[in-house]
Each structure stands twice: as structure tokens, then as C-alpha cells.
């Protein structure tokens, strides 16, 4: 349809032109005509008949003419043979005329015609670079011009480029700049400062328009890249960062990530992080920052006690030029962890304490510390239970270690007080400290003898100056307080000061005799020994040493009867010749000052005029006839009687008895039995008195007891008297407490010596008489009691015997039972023998 329009237009022009041609034939056609389009009627214009066209072979001769045009032989018309592009043929020249040679043959005739090619607006303006890239600095000043490429249009004249337009934008406008030969070049003018951060790329479309009708256009895409200028600071996400870290956080732990952005691009927007320039080493050694990521990691060890909080300045810097930086603050708070054990510090060294120090005496001052804070540093101290020390708190964790109970150096000379400090953290930490405390001695212990009483058995006739015994006392105290010296307390022995008998080595307690002792004069005595320490004030204690002198056989038997024999002269006894066998002639009686075996006397006939007539009773010394006297017997008989004791060595003496046999003498001169009966009566009387006095004493005791009992019942709450009774019975059970029994035996029991008495009272000594010789000696039972009590006495006897060869069964059958069961507190000795006296024994 468009072509048809074009064609119609063309025909109109053609006829208009045709009419104006004169002279040389000239055609004018627009370019780009269709093939076959008629340019002009050659036949007519050359004045040729139609027949001639064929016959004369009318044709286009010139080469270019041949290409574009041909002659229609039928009609004689010049037609377009090929596409005609004015721009191709004539370029940018304003007029475009094609000269054509038309050849006619027969006759050969040459015509010259011209075909003017007229421009049609068939080319649009075009840019050489369809997409133009421009880089403009962000900092470019307003008004700066940027020359653009101008568009080309193949068409000429008004069909060529006439104007330019630019897409609307706020930053740029388009201005035309005249250049030489009247051409104009488009220029971009910066109207407003660029901001890459707002718009980094501007896309513009430059359109070139031609003057044709219709108007054709060509475009060029202009891409303006705004070049970044480092005009932005890095911006932190937050101005203040705040984090908390546990004190015990491990190394390399991530702490926080700092983030910052820079609106610039490229290096201008590349942010690098660092710690501020004035960051102290204490921070640098603990934290590190990754410059690229902004991550902060822990690099060192945290210690709340050194730094509880870090305030760090962080710098973010871009890589532009000049570089831009900004800062933020990072606060890292350290949370305390209970990582410090409490500590006990002695503020004053422990002082030695006297063992008698009052409760509350200060021993040492100490201080409890914990480097942590808050509850982690709250320290409690503990002293082990049962120790006589306690802690007295004073101001701010200071304590005084004070005594809180009785001390005794003798039991604990030194204490190592282990004090435990515990904090209140979770879990709590604790530590211990041992505080050595020395207890100094106070003289609070008296010397103690190894025994309360010592029994020493000493043979008589010893060498003076020999060691009698060694006592020893120990003192639990220390040093001078334990240094014991011994002394003998003055007392009287047989009206002589004891110090004339013995002396003591004050250093070691050895007691020396100063005399030889005579058993016959002194049988027992006691020494009060005192041990005294050197303390101030000094303490002392006493012990009693009982010295028993042991009998030695140092006395020969002495004859008492016949008395004249005692003088060493002859004793004359008379007897009737009519005496039967067994007639008692006389009785020889001797005594021995010694005791025991040493005093056990036996009689025997050593020599006799007629050995078959008389005999002497071995034990009694009774001289009796063996047979009836006969008429042949000499009237004067002599007997040499040897009296021996049983000591070691045996001591003996002799007595000569001369007997005169008389006729007609009937009455025995001696009635020993009668003689003996008298003292028996006397003794009976004494017994009666004794029983009477015993009865009265018993009544008195009973009364006293009753009164005490009544008192005791009245104040039953605090009955000291009752208690005393118990103590009494204790004593009773320990009959050996103050009882010493001395027994000399060798074969049959001859005598028992009982020593009794309380320590302070004068000891009592007596002898019981069990000589088998004596048919009268006996203990009399006062109050029969159980035999067990007696057995205790026996066991005591046994224990205290110097040589325990003694057995209770060893008595001879002929001997009367010598010991009867006794009331334990009272023994009664009824003695008719030679030594009988001291009827009462009180065993306490
Ligand atoms: C410290 O300990 C006490 C008692 O156990 C408790 O009441 C208090 O809350 C604690 N204080 C802290 C800061 O943990
Ligand atoms: C005590 O000292 C004397 C003299 O130095 C010495 O003979 C005696 O054996 C000593 N006694 C003891 C028990 O050491
Ligand atoms: C020791 O005996 C003496 C003299 O009898 C006396 O003064 C002293 O108090 C006694 N000491 C003790 C501890 O019994």
C-alpha cells in the first residue's frame, strides 16, 4: 500500500518534470524505484517511431546505464532495470545525475540523456557506537561537558541528521556544539553533582533525528558509570558494643563481631578493622581483631582480678585515598569466676602459750583473703572441732586465734592447728594452713614416786654406807620444772633423828645406810622421802620407805632355866629313885634373841653319865626318865644338854644338869602343869577384860555409826559420810594396803610376823606365836567369818614373803592349827609362850 502511494506520487512528479524538459533529454527519478518502473518514453522524446525502436535496435550503451536501465523495445520506454541507491551511486554529493548513452543502429546514432536520481529519505541517522560507555568521576564539577559522537545519515539535505534528543534525567542535559563546516556535535552537560552512592550508573538514550518526512531516527545507548570518590566514612552497625565474658573463657574463643559498612565502592568501600591507636598493651595482649571480618577473639588469659572490664576503641578504615575512618566503642565486662583459692596470711607469728593461759589468750593474728570478688571472695575460716583454739573475728577478715579451752603441755606439747578457709563461690574453693603453736611448761605437776610406799628388807649387821635402796620420782613437766631432787624429811626413830640412820643422794634418790642395824634393837622404821622439783613455785611429793631389818642368826640361845645354869654353873636337880619311866625331872628353857628359825630352839642330850636313863624332849626341853631307875644306877647323874637354834650358821649353847637320885623322895618338886595353869587363869582374866572392853567399844562404835547414819539420811543429797563408808569398804577389799606380814619359814611354820598400821601413824609390830613347841599358843577366834577373807590375807602373805617357799599346808600335824579365820579387821593373839604380848592387831 505504501509503495502504491509512493508510485502515485512519483508519476505526478514525472509528468511535471517531463513538461519542463527542453533541449537535452533529461529524466529525473527518485532512487529506489522498482524494477520495471518507467523512467521516460525514449521513442517519443527522441522522436522515433515505434517500429524504428525495434528495427534500429534502440539500446542503452554505457556500462552503468546498462546496469540500471534498459529500453522496453515494445513501447520505447526507458525502464529501471536494477535497484538504484542514490547513496551508493553518489554518496553524500548533493546532486546525483547518471549520464546515459542511447545507441541507434541503421544508421548508427548516439543520443545522450541524463537521469537525475533524486534523494529519498531512506536512511535513518545512525551512531557508530550503538552503546557508548562513559566514566565520570563522582567529583566532576557541575557544567562539565562531555562530547558525544554525532550520528551519521546517508541521506543528504534535509534528509540528513537534523537534531538530537536525550532521555530525560536530572543530572545531564544535551547541548550542541558547533564545529567547523557548520556541523554540530552533541555534548552532555553535567547539571547536578553526581553521587555514586545514590546512583552509580546512569543510562541515557541519545536519539538523532533527520529532517526527512517522515522523520527517521537513530539511537545510541549511553551508559554513564559514576566513578567512586572516597567520600563516605565506614559506618558501624552500633556505636557501642557491650559483651560479657566469663573469666575462665578459653583462648581463641570468639568474643564479638564488629560490623561496619562503607557506602563507597572498591577499595573506598573496603573496610579494615583495628584497635584504636591508643589501645594499651594490656588489651592487645588479650584480644585480637580480624581486620577483614571484624571478629574479635580472645588471645590471652582473662583475669577478673587484674581487669574486670575492658573499654576498647575500634577503628574501621577504608582503603580509599585519602582513607576515611570511624570509631566505635567496645566494652567487654569480665564476669568473675571463683578461680582464686582463699588464702590465710599470718599477720603475726604464733606465740608460744603457757599451758595455764586463760581462755581467750591471743596466740596469733591472721587474715583471710580471696582475690575473687563478691561471694567468691567471702571467706569463712574453720578450726578443727575439739581443738582448744578458736577464731575471734575482728574487722574486715582479720581474725585472732585465741585459746578456748584448757591446755596441758604434758598431753599436747605442741598443736598444729589446721585452719581451713572456704569461700562462698560455687563450687567453693578452700585452702588450709597449719599454725604451729607451742605450749610452754608451767610447773603444774608434782614429782611422782614410782610407788607410794617402798618396802626395803635389810639384813641386820650390814656394812654402814651401803646403798639401802634407790627411790625414784618422775616429773611430767619440762626442764627445771621436771628436775627432781630428793631429800629425807626429818622424823624420829627410837628418839633419834632418822637422818642419823640414813642419808639420800639428792640427785638420784639412792638411800644409804649410816649404821649397821641390829634386828634385836630395831626391827622396822620408816623414812619419809620427799621429791621436789626446781620449778617456781616448786612442787613436791612424799613417799614412805619402810625398812624392815631382817634377822640374822647372831645370837646364841640363852638358857633361862635352870637359872643357875644360866650363870654357867651346875644346876642340881633331885629326883626319887622310885620314879617310873617318863618321870619329868626338869625342864630346860632357853631363849634366842633372834627370831624365826634363828630362834627355833631344839634340845638334845650331848653327854650323859648314863645315856639310857634320861631323855630330853627335842622341842620342850623337858628332861624325863626313859626307864625306871634301878638300884644300880649312880645316884649322881650328869647331863650335858646342847641347845641349838635353827639359824644359819647354827648357834648353840650347852647347859649341864646334874641330877641326884634320892631314896624315899616321893613328891615331885616341880609341877610345871600347875605353874603353867596360873598364867592360864591370868590370861583367862585378861581375856574377860578384853571381851568387856571390846563390847564397850562395839557399843560406842554402834552409837557413832547410828548418829552418822541419821546425819547421812538427813542430807542425803551431799552425804560425804556415806561416801566415806564406801571408801572404807574399798580398803577392806584391799587388805594388803597397809598390812605387812613377815614370815620366816623353813619347814614347819614357826611364826608369823604381822606388821600393820597406817602410813602416818606409828606402825605396829607384833608377833604371833605358832611354835610347834608350844602347846598353848593359839589365835583365838573372836568373830568367825568367811574363809575367803582369810585367803586374801594368805595371798598377801604369799606376796610379801621375801622367799616364798611357804605353803599353808606345810604345817606339821603335831602343830595346832596356827591361824584361824579372823574377822578381817581384828586379830586377837592369845599367847602364852615366851614372846606372847601385844594381843590386838588392827589392820586398817
Ligand atoms: C551471695 O550469697 C548469698 C547467700 O548465699 C546470696 O543470698 C546472694 O544472692 C549471693 N550474691 C550473689 C551476687 O550471688
Ligand atoms: C646415785 O649416784 C651415786 C653416786 O654417783 C651412785 O653410786 C649410785 O649408784 C647412783 N644411784 C642410781 C640409782 O643411779
Ligand atoms: C610431805 O611431808 C611434809 C612433812 O610431813 C609435809 O609438810 C608436806 O606437806 C608433805 N607433802 C605432801 C605433798 O604431802
TrEMBL record:
One of its GO terms (molecular function) is calcium ion binding. It comes from Oreochromis niloticus (Nile tilapia). The chain crosses the membrane at residues 688-710. Residues 21-127, 128-236, 237-344, 353-449, 450-559, 575-670 form the Cadherin domain. GO terms for cellular component: plasma membrane. It is a single-pass type I membrane protein. It is found in: Cell membrane. GO terms for biological process: anatomical structure morphogenesis; homophilic cell adhesion via plasma membrane adhesion molecules. Keywords: Calcium, Cell adhesion, Cell membrane, Glycoprotein, Membrane, Repeat, Signal, Transmembrane, Transmembrane helix. This is Cadherin domain-containing protein. Pfam families: Cadherin, Cadherin_2, Cadherin_C_2.
